[in-house]
Automatic annotation (TrEMBL):
Keyword Metal-binding among UniProt keywords: yes
Enzymatic reactions: L-prolyl-[collagen] + 2-oxoglutarate + O2 = trans-4-hydroxy-L-prolyl-[collagen] + succinate + CO2
Purpose: Catalyzes the post-translational formation of 4-hydroxyproline in -Xaa-Pro-Gly- sequences in collagens and other proteins.
Cited SMART domains: P4Hc
PROSITE patterns: FE2OG_OXY
Source superkingdom: Eukaryota
Gene3D superfamilies, per database record: 6.10.140.1460, q2cbj1_9rhob like domain, Tetratricopeptide repeat domain
Protein name: Prolyl 4-hydroxylase subunit alpha-3
Keyword annotations: Dioxygenase, Endoplasmic reticulum, Glycoprotein, Iron, Metal-binding, Oxidoreductase, Signal, TPR repeat, Vitamin C
SUPFAM superfamilies membership: TPR-like
Organism: Camelus dromedarius
Length: 615
């Protein structure tokens, strides 16, 4: 082959490789499978497929090994029977021959058999083919951080989580937040990995309880070997001892280090640590050092963290009595011919900010269709950071943007939203519809949907600020996932197929500071949401459900509410209820009428001037 021919062949091969890469890059489902599995439950569910393939490979391996072991057992029984028969004469030339043959040939073949290595090689080859579709180590870290997030926000007991139960423990009171149909407990190795993630971050507040549980479980099963485990009792004791030392509890560090040496007495590093801890305690003014109080790290630096978590802990439960007449339910047509024959069930949740829940806004079929359209295009949700769009720990989800040209059903849905709200939801007056799927412990910490800074990239879109949020719940969850309004002091649970609506801007175009809200972590369930923010041109735009600015990092937002937070004596709220007296005092100072709490379990609907019980 000449130089020209070789060059042509090389170019052809290069083009073929590029074509394959382009094809793979253009496959959104394949790309989504490789990217941030932990950040969307649909990606986590997709990870079941490669594990099923691995199960098939392991089943083939086990069958091969079972056949090999059956054959080895046959050989063993044959030879053993000859040794057990005392009448076996070596003088028989046939028996003598087979004895020599076994020792010279058969045993060599048994010991050096390639069947075992061929079986394990087939298993390893199969794993390597599946490996590209498996979650990355970053997903393991993200899933571990999610468990810590749920532990914090819902005040979950680590021992309970390890047993598979979701319990909030406050003092002597134990509250069951969720009772799974089937208990699934964690192993010592599972707990160790969660604690190790916190340990590596220098977060000993979370590392210690998880490592303590790992030590406890490893102690109970000491001596048992599990092929899949990466850690051991010694590993857990090692990390827990140093975590206690870093947290200031030298006596616990010493006790755990001494226990470690019982299992591994030749470990020189641990022996040096024991001497160091003993010296520190001897030099200390009080050898009986009390346990150090480990403060929980405020990683996101949220000034409203206690309020946010208190609202999430209500899990969106409703009050037992309907006491506030200014909140009501009705059938809504918005004077639109489009809705006259099929009005929407409207529930006024709150007045300031004005928040409305529209029940059964979409059907089950529509919700499923939207999820199906979005799923192949889901990517890690981002927020604006200066000129860049970045994934952040305070927003864990995946999202996709859908044009109404994707499916006629989306056009119908846009018409329904426009008829109900009176807003133009078509570009350029609106952004495309955004579909969000939350991940393990998926959440979105307190934020505004509207831009609070004139430098926000939103203003470069030439559509003005975001005027309103229209958020549709496309699925139900078993626990958690409520939408919490921080300064409004109420939370709204996930109601499947319902739509939550509120205004982000006042008529003046200024942002409404009371709309600071958060998506509480999903405790159990697969939460999907579809949202659009819509409005007219000249400062009344629309957008997908994404925050361009975040309260915790926004000095303007903080200044807006510092005085109100200082004057409000917040108490642990029930969902849809707010602390009435403190809020009334603040509203009187602002010259505004105080608004009430939330809806009851039994709302009244007005039908042709008559009252009928609904919901």
């Amino acid at each position: 082959m000449g130089p020209v021919a070789r060059l042509a062949a090389l170019l052809a091969a290069l083009l073929a490789v590029l074509a394959v890469l382009a094809l793979r890059a253009g496959d959104p489902a394949r790309a989504a499978a490789r990217d941030d599995t932990f950040s969307a439950l649909t990606s986590v569910a997709r990870a079941l497929a490669p594990e099923r393939r691995l199960l098939g490979l392991l089943r083939s391996y086990l069958r091969g090994e079972e056949a090999r072991l059956r054959d080895l057992t046959r050989f063993y029984d044959k030879v053993l029977s000859l040794h057990e028969d005392s009448a076996t004469p070596v003088s028989n030339p046939l028996l003598a021959f087979t004895l020599i043959k076994r020792l010279q040939s058969d045993w060599k073949n048994v010991v050096h058999s390639l069947e075992a290595s061929e079986n394990i090689r087939a298993l390893k080859d199969g794993y390597e083919k599946v490996e590209q579709d498996l979650p990355a180590f970053e997903d393991l870290e993200g899933a571990a951080r999610a468990l810590m997030r749920l532990q914090d926000v819902y005040m979950l007991n680590v021992k309970g989580l390890a047993r598979g139960v979701f319990q909030r423990v406050t003092g002597s009171a134990v509250t069951d937040l969720y009772s799974p149909r089937r208990l699934f407990s964690l192993t010592g190795d599972d707990c160790f990995h969660v604690g190790k993630v916190a340990y590596d971050m220098g977060d000993y507040y979370h590392a210690i309880p998880w490592l303590e549980e790992a030590v406890s479980l490893f102690r109970g099963s000491y001596g048992e070997w599990k092929t899949e485990d990466e850690a051991s009792l010694e590993d857990a004791l090692d990390h827990l001892a140093f975590a206690y030392f870093q947290a200031g509890n030298v006596s616990c560090a010493l006790s755990l280090s001494r226990e470690f040496l019982l299992y591994s007495p030749d470990n020189k590093r641990m022996a040096r640590n024991v001497l160091k801890y003993e010296k520190l305690l001897a030099e200390g003014p009080n050898p009986a050092v009390a346990e150090a109080v480990i403060q929980r790290p405020n990683v996101p630096h949220l000034q409203t963290r206690d309020t946010y978590e208190g609202l999430c802990q209500t899990l969106g439960s409703q009050p037992t009595h309907y006491q506030i007449p200014s909140l009501y339910c009705s059938y809504e047509t918005s004077s639109s011919p489009y809705l006259l024959l099929q009005p929407i069930r409207k529930e006024v949740i709150h007045l300031e900010p004005y928040v409305v829940l529209y029940h059964d806004f979409v059907s089950d079929a529509e919700a499923q269709k939207i999820r199906g359209l979005a799923e192949p295009w889901l990517q890690r949700s981002v927020v604006a950071s200066g000129e860049k769009q970045l994934p952040v720990e305070y927003r864990i989800s995946k999202s996709a943007w859908l044009k109404d040209t994707v499916d006629p059903m989306l056009v119908t849905l846009d018409h329904r939203i426009a008829a109900l709200t009176g807003l133009d939801v078509q570009p350029p007056y609106a952004e495309y519809l955004q579909v969000v799927n939350y991940g393990i412990g998926g959440h979105y910490e307190p934020h505004f949907d509207h831009a609070t800074s004139p430098t926000s990239p939103l203003y470069r879109m030439k559509s003005g600020n975001r005027v309103a949020t229209f958020m549709i719940y496309l699925s139900s969850v078993e626990a958690g996932g409520a939408t919490a309004f921080i300064y409004g002091n109420f939370s709204v649970p996930v109601v499947k197929n319902a739509a939550l609506f509120w205004w982000n801007l006042h008529r003046s175009g200024e942002g409404d500071g009371d709309t600071l809200h958060a998506g509480c972590p999903v405790l159990v369930g697969d939460k999907w949401g579809k949202a659009c923010l819509s409005g007219h041109r000249n400062g009344w735009p629309t957008s997908g459900y994404t925050s361009m600015d975040r309260n915790s990092a926004d000095p303007a937002a903080h200044a807006l509410k510092t005085k109100m937070v200082a004057e409000r004596s917040w108490r642990s709220p029930v969902a849809f209820q707010r602390s009435q007296k403190p809020k009334a005092r603040v509203r009187e100072e602002k010259g505004e009428q105080a608004s009430g709490g939330g809806p009851s379990q039994h709302c009244l609907f007005l039908v042709n001037g008559r009252q009928g019980r609904g919901l």
